[in-house]
Amino acid sequence: MAAAASVLTAQPTPTASGPALDLFHQLLAVIEWLTDHAWLLLLVLVGAAAITELVLRRMAMAASQQRMALDLTPARHFDPSPEQILRRGIELARASTSMPWWAPRRSKAVRIRLRADGTSPLLYRIEGPAGAERLLTTTPFGPHVKVTKAAALPNKQRRHEVRAEFILRGNPVALLRDVPLEPDPLQPLVDAVADLRAQLGDLAEVCVDLQRAPKTVLKARRWQLLDAARRNERTETARLTHWMHRDHQRLQDSWLFQFTQVLSSDGRRSREGGRMVMTPPQVRVDPAKAFGKLAEDSHLVRVQILVRCASDTAGRAEAHLARIQAGLAVFGGSARFAMRGWRIGPWRLGADRWPHRRQFDRRWAAGQCQPPAANWVQLTELLGLLKPPTVHCRLPLLAVDLPSFVPEDPSLLLQGWYQGADGRRRLVATPTAETLFEVGVGKAGGGKTERALVQSVGYAHAGGGFLFVDPHRDSWQRAAPYLAHDHLMGRIARIDLKATGPQSLISSWNLIGMDHGRPRHEVVEDTVDAFASAFGWEDANAPRAIAIFTEALTALTAANELACQAGRPDDQATVFQVRSLLTDAGFRTCALAAVRERLGEESAAWWQSVFPTFPADSFNILINPLARLAANPVTRAFLGQGQGIYNIRAAMDRRMIVWVCTAGNGPTDKLLVALLARDLLRAGRSRTDVPEDQRVLFRVYLDELITLTGTAADSIASMFEDLRKFKVQIHGMTQLLARLPVSVRQSLLQNASTLSTTTGSRGAVSAITEEWGDQPSATHVAHLDRYDHYAQFTVGGRRVGPVLVHGPVLEDVFADLYQPGNRRALEAAADKTAGARPLSELTARAAAQQQRIQAFLLKHTPSASPLTKSTKEFQ
After folding, report:
1. Distance, CA of 786 to CA of 802 (rounded, Å)
2. pLDDT (tens digit, 9 = 90+) per residue, 281-315?
């Protein structure tokens, strides 16, 4: 029994710790197994992560297919306020979440695409979820920005491409620099791509992706910032304590401290030697300071900036990327945008290299946003990128905006030299069909007339026809050597009214001639209107003058019709016979007897019953201006020929080049200019008898409008209002808009498709700069160099400019056309085409014209010969 008891006593007694120990051993075994098979665990985790990424990527690609794009085209005066831009940014942030519930976060983004390829200064496009179309289409910018559905972008492959992604560097919670809206923050980016050339395959694109701040990610980011701030504070406190102890020890070891101890009276340590060193208290971390711009949830977004530049020419893509990088530096402050990657010598490991390139291309193509952890910004930091270019942005002028001039191309009208951002100069032009009315303003010698001359010479060699009215005659001397070519001589006619002697060659014009086949009533109406416009006659203030003049011209045109029927166009009456008809009873009796059957009952009754009741002085209002015209040998010779040669309507239809050199500024000269202007207006309006598609373009150059509008204000104003539809284009030049009649000035500014100004006083050019919103200002224009112009053009139905162009000079542009040796031949041919004869000869013929007419009327009746139509016009 004792042995059994000892055996039982020797056996171990079960304890409560047995199961826990077994569990502990099992856990150790699992850990040992996992340690031995760590590769398997890693493989499972990697596989799960890969499958998850693959699923998310496919889901993101599926969600990214449901996207749309809008092009935003700002008006020239677009000038939004910061509040409007912020509201637009809020809309973009909200639009980024308009995706299906299952869409991954990376696909919930809105993209702002800035693109330039040499065909447009800067394309501003918004790309976002299709479900946010209504939100993206309606902008707070109102009618100042045109929103249209975007077309697909061309995907042309270039030989050289570079890529870059920009991330925030520096203080991750600091704000970017507060960039003002004037000048436009986009200006550096616009300047960076201003020299892109489409013919070289240049392309530059900047994509700014915005993503609304995820709450969970934001909380995690704040926890990281707060933890980092606490660690930094503890590190700073420890460093400060360490240096305080070291400073105390250095003080005790110094000779000054020991010398003080020796000199102490009681031989004891001074109180300073026993000073206790206190550890500085730890400063509590301020969350608001630690979070910085992440402290507020509102208007907080994540941003991703991707840049791609390409070209078919080596080196250009890299150069444009460097300029874009410099352009983004304008936002830099304590935080800045920097290119992601590392630079090792001449190489950069970034978005262009493995492994980032494939991810970059996927995000670029699908519009997905996966920004770095530091890319958090407030919308107020990106105001400059949230709107299209404003009025404060200087856009480059590309060939698509203003085409380059091509010699002998009738569809282009030369305008001047333009210097691009890359320093290259090119001759720019506007479409001829769209250059309806041009206005040039500026001081004398500034280059207005020279620009018009270069333009007209180029248009002539391209086959176009025009009328150049030159009050000074100098323009003919300048242009003649460049027009002296065989293929042009047959189309040029010179009407020179500046006679210097009896042998000066003068052309002829019969105001009431019937040899051109026009209806008689139209000739009467046009002549009466010309005189009425010149003298301000109206039914209210001069009814008698209008009535008498109308009846007199009716009788004389009937006589002229009779002369043309008889084959005697040289025996036609002129406007000078109006005076004889009213004051010479013998001539009046002869003329009325010959045309009685042609007058009609009313006109015949008027001469029988009404005319005799007028007193003699009733005709002075007509006789006085006609007497002044007759007293001047030049006007008497020009207007006093029975068969005139000048026919501006025929010149329009035949693309002729007509140069009219007016005489001067006297009353008679102004009256003659008024008659010419009214006839030009009449000829343009008369083209209504030609189908619109068959009307050929004809240009009119009016130099020194102040002189020409003296008595022709209404006619010239009507030209700028009416002749567009008849394909007659006007180019007017003046030194001062303020000196023009109000009607002319208003018509010029209202209808001008090209508005330009050279240098001048601020008061003189302010009328033009005000039309441009003082951009440029009058002060800026007043300091232009000679021949420099600010001009606004019309191309493709929209306004381009004001653009600084250098006025062309004949010697620079058309040096190869200079033919001074052919000038005499040109002038002879031009005078022959105009039917010019010596002044003495025409004066003698004009003096004897009435006798010839009276002799003809005595010998002929209206039925003497069949109607013949003279063909002696401009050949």
Report:
1. 17
2. 666 777 777 777 777 778 888 899 999 999 999 98
Can you tell me the distance from the alpha carbon of 157 to that of 72, in angstroms, rounded to the nearest whole number? 26
DSSP 508: -
Name the residue among 195, 448, 395 with its Cα closest to residue 802: 395
Buried b / exposed e along 185-211 (16+ C-beta atoms within 10 A):
bbbbbbbbbbbbbeeebbbbbbbbbbb
pLDDT tens sequence across 417-451: 988 777 788 898 989 888 889 888 888 888 888 99
Question: Is residue 466 predicted with pLDDT exceeding 90?
Answer: yes
Dihedral, CA of residue 530, residue 532, residue 536 and residue 540, to nearest 10: -150
The per-residue b/e assignment along 733-770, b for 16 or more CB within 10 angstroms, e otherwise, is bbbbbeebbebbbebbbebbbbbbbbbbeeebbbbbbe
Sequence-separated (6 or more) residues with CB below 8 Å from residue 139: 72, 88, 91, 145, 147
Kindly report the backbone phi and psi dihedral angles of residue 766, in degrees, each rounded to the nearest multiple of 5, phi listed first: -65, -30
Question: Hey, what are 802's tokens?
Answer: 């004001």
Alpha-carbon span 411 to 400, nearest angstrom? 15
Distances, alpha carbon 843 to alpha carbons 164, 398, 503, 513, 644, in Å? 83, 57, 11, 18, 14
pTM, rounded to two decimals: 0.77
The answer to whether 635 and 629 have CB atoms below 8 angstroms apart is yes
Tell me how far apart the alpha carbons of residues 455 and 700 are, in angstroms, rounded to a whole number: 12
Tokens of 439: 């206005």
**The predicted structure's pLDDT at residue 459:** 93
pLDDT band at residue 120 under the 50/70/90 scheme = confident
pLDDT of residue 270: 47
The token duo for 533 is 């416009």
Per the DSSP assignment, residues forming a β-bridge with 661 are 470, 496
DSSP 689: G
**Mean pLDDT: which of 325-339, 374-388, 453-467, 858-872 is highest?**
453-467
